[in-house]
Amino acid sequence: MGIADRRNAVRVAGTPTLLVGVLLLLGVVGVQAEDRFCVTDDRQREVCLSQPAERIIALSPGVTELLFAAGAGDRISGAVRYSDYPEAANDLPRVGNHTRVDMETVLAMEPDLIVAWVSGNPAEQLERLEQLGLTVYYSEVRDFEDVAASIRRFGRLAGTSAEAEQAAAGFTADISRLEQTYGDRDPVRLFYQIWDDPLMTINDTHLISQIIGLCGGENVFGDLDRMVPRLDRESVLAARPEAIAAGGMGEGNESWLEPWKQFDQLPATGRGNLFFVPPSTIQRPTPRVIEGAEILCEHLEAARGRR
To answer: Checking DSSP bridges between strand 243-246 and strand 188-193, what pairing results, if any?
Structure first.
C-alpha cells in the first residue's frame, strides 16, 4: 500500500475497508477515538495512528534506543547512522544521519511512523515529510520524566504498552534509588566536558546536569544562559572545579582528559579527579543514563574521599 493509500484508508475491527467506507457515508458506523492510538509528542502535537505502527523510522540514535526500550525494536524499519544500541540496532537499514536524512530511502520504506529529533534533524526535511502525508512524532527529551514518558508513548504507538510500562517504571525506580543514595552527599564542584574543540559544557537545564545533581554534584557552569555553552580553558581554570568529567570520541577514548593533566594548580588535577564516562551512557537521553549516572556517582564519591 502506498503512502497516499495508507493516509486515506479507514479500518474498523476487521471490517473490509471498502465496506467501512460505504457505512461511513451512510452514517451507520463511526470511528471512535478509543479505536485510535494517540499520544502527545514533545512539541505538544497530537499524534494518532489507526493501528499500531509496524514500520517505524528512528531519526536519532537516542530515539532508536528508546524504541527498543519500549518493546518496539522489531518494528523499526530504518535508523540513522550511529544507532548502535542495543546490538540488534546495528543491523537496521540506514536512512542517512541525524543532520541529513536520506529522503528517497525514507519514502521507499513507506513508514507508518517517523520519530524525529527536534533539535537535531533538519526542520525543512521534517516539514517535507509531513507535507507528503507521513506521520511524524517530534522527540525532545530534556529530563528524567521525559525519558519515562517517551518510552510509554512509543509503547502506545507501537502496541507494546505492557513492555513499555515495565521499562519506564524500572527506569524511574533506578533514578529514585540513586537519588536516595547520593542526593544528600556533600556537593562536589564538577566541570563536565561534552566536547573538546571547541571546548563545550552544559548548563543546568541539560539532562547531564540533572545527572550531576542526582549524584550530589554541582555543575560549575550550570548558571550559564545557553544549554550547551562554548568556553575557553581560562574559564575552567578560573572556576577551579574539584573534579572534571568527560566523554570522548569513543567509548574507551580518554584523550579529552589529557590536556588537563598539565594544570597542577587545578583541584581536579591535583587530587587526581579527572574522570572518564563512556559518552553513549550519559550523552544520549535514554534508559542507559542510569549506567552513566552510576559511573559518575562513583567518580564523585571517589572525589569526596580525596579531600
So the answer is: parallel
Residue type, 255: S
| 230 and 189 in a common domain | yes
The C-alpha atoms of residue 71 and residue 173 are separated, in whole angstroms, by 19
Range of the domain at 40: 36-168
Q: If we measure between CA atoms, which residue out of 63, 77, 147, 67 comes closest to residue 106?
A: 77
What cell was used for 203? 548548563
pLDDT tens digit sequence for 140-165: 999 999 999 999 999 999 999 999 99
Gap between the Cα atoms of 219 and 187, Å rounded: 10
Cβ within 8 Å of residue 251, ≥6 positions away: 278, 279, 280
From CA 213, how far away is CA 227, in angstroms rounded? 16
29 in a domain, yes or no?
no
The enclosing H or E element of 268 equals helix 267-270
| Residue 32, C-alpha cell as written in the block | 471512535
Whether residue 28 lies inside any domain: the answer is no
- 180 located within any domain: no
Q: For position 67, which CATH number holds?
A: 3.40.50.1980
Entry pTM? 0.85
Q: 239: which DSSP letter?
A: H
Residue found under cell 471512535: 32
Structural domain contains residue 23: no
- pLDDT tens readout for residues 61-104: 999 999 999 999 999 999 999 999 999 999 999 999 999 999 99
Q: Is 6 exposed, middle or buried (0-12, 13-18, 19+ CB in 10 A)?
A: middle
Band (pLDDT 50/70/90 cuts) for residue 35 is low
